[in-house]
Amino acid sequence: MGTEARAGRRQLLVFTSVVLSSLALGRGAVYTSEPDVRVPEDKPAKLSCSYSGFSNPRPPSYADRVTFSHSGITFHSVTRKDTGTYTCMVSDDGGNTYGEVSVQLTVLVPPSKPTVHIPSSATIGSRAVLTCSEKDGSPPSEYYWFKDGVRMPLEPKGNRAFSNSSYSLNEKTGELVFDPVSAWDTGEYTCEAQNGYGMPMRSEAVRMEAAELNVGGIVAAVLVTLILLGFLILGIWFAYRRGYFDRTKKGTSSKKVIYSQPAARSEGEFRQTSSFLV
């Protein structure tokens, strides 16, 4: 039997929930009794592969990290980088019979503490985006949000406690979007990451304040800007009336040069033909 394992390759075949999966070309067939293998990191993993209908299969070589046998390959110790789809391919010496089967290997790694980005304040009526992520979990984590210690449902309008809020929550990406922000959205927010392996991990709680737009402050800032601009214009006008700009012009010195073209003269006649005034 020959087997070829390729780490990191994305899944090409989709297996249904059956005990035995097989793919055969010609008169040979290749089988696996476990198409989806889940193993904790740093533990051994067995990828099963068996065949029938091959007279003399050709075995290829592989790295020293695995052991080949007539029933598949065994990883001595898997890492999170080994997660991927592996394909067992079998062919006889003549190459007339060929078969293959794929096995999905998922190396289980618990999630780490997620990092969050939560604005400290948000304007009522505007759009606010809260994000949550962690990069260690395998399989990838799903994310759940909590407000003041209470888990937020996917559909706020269907929950009496959150019916006054308008938000969308994506458990896959960890994004929580308020559109629009309401006064009720003020509170402490926490994100939790979990992937079904190990303990769920929570972020630090961060408070977000939902506040009205400060129209009075904006108007006051505009008025102050206009007043300062008025004082500047008045100062320039006062300086002009006092003649400060004229004195500056008089105080500057300049040099003038006058040059005249030589006039026609007769031979032997001499007179000044050009003059310079400095």
TrEMBL record:
Residues 1-28 form the signal peptide. PROSITE patterns: IG_LIKE. Pfam families: ig (PF00047), Ig_3 (PF13927). It is found in: Cell junction, Tight junction; Cell membrane. Keywords: Cell junction, Cell membrane, Disulfide bond, Glycoprotein, Immunoglobulin domain, Membrane, Phosphoprotein, Repeat, Signal, Tight junction, Transmembrane, Transmembrane helix. SUPFAM superfamilies: Immunoglobulin (SSF48726). It comes from the Eukaryota. The chain crosses the membrane at residues 215-240. Residues 28-106, 114-207 form the Ig-like domain. The keyword Membrane applies. It is a single-pass type I membrane protein. InterPro entries: F11R (IPR042456), Ig-like_dom (IPR007110), Ig-like_dom_sf (IPR036179), Ig-like_fold (IPR013783), Ig_sub (IPR003599), Ig_sub2 (IPR003598), Immunoglobulin_dom (IPR013151). Gene3D superfamilies: Immunoglobulins. Belongs to the immunoglobulin superfamily. Interacts with the ninth PDZ domain of MPDZ. Interacts with the first PDZ domain of PARD3. The association between PARD3 and PARD6B probably disrupts this interaction. Interacts with ITGAL (via I-domain). Interacts with CD151. This is Junctional adhesion molecule A.
